[in-house]
What does this fold into?
Amino acid sequence: MIANALFLRKSKAKGFTPHLFRGWGSLNSQPNRKGAGFTLLELLIVITILAILAVIIIFVLNPAETLRKSRDVQRMSDLATLKNAIGLYTTVVTDIRLDGTAGSATNCFGVTQSVSVPDIWLSVGTAPSAGTAVTGFATTVANTWNVSATASAIDGTGWIPVDFTDISGGSPISNLPIDPQNTLVNGTSTATAATNDALMYRYSCRTNASSTNPSTYEVSANLESNEYKNSGTNDKESKDGGNNNNLYEAGTDLTILPNTDTY
Ligand SMILES: [Ca+2]
Ligand SMILES: [Ca+2]
Ligand SMILES: [Ca+2]
It folds into this structure.
């Protein structure tokens, strides 16, 4: 009763209507607790503060962006791994076959990027069903997408047609890295036309008329985080020395894969 009376007095002093809170006094009405309990108002304040803190934590940590960033870090690491592996392959192997065939890599892009049927290899399992003509190409590239059912294989049957088992001493990698999302359909990219939005890896090489064993290639990935993508706070896509500001490019010639959005 004493606690109830104190509560009512407090409530009056703070401008509350006492009869509305008469029942609530039972929360701290046990005589032995001597004010150790909480009023409903105090509980509401604590719950509100916790809710605000939760919103702030979610906003600051931004779990979706954190996941995008970790996938981007994986992509940059994967491309570095591929660059090292292909670099070792072209250094050690005499009969270099960057397009999977012997000779001058005629399935690759031409010297001037103007061959009619250049090949692009993709890490996804299903190729786009139609291509779109792009600047520098004589025709559409609809029938030049290459995908593999055994994408991770390193013996030339994977999504990159290089046979890493040809390296004396063994392949430096046991699997070809695949994009963490590895999907063609994303943003403006559709199952019928690939754009830079597709979260997949791309690879191609360049035919070299003066060499039977051309060794220039490019591999690229689409970065998606607000930190690493084009114009991001730590932009990696437009600052890689390549010709496509919306993809992260690596390799020995970053002008092989087109700089257009749809190709
Ligand atoms: Ca780039
Ligand atoms: Ca991008
Ligand atoms: Ca490029």
In short: The chain has two domains: 2-60, 63-263. Residues 2-60 form one domain. Strands lie at 120-122, 145-146, 201-205, 217-221, 248-251.
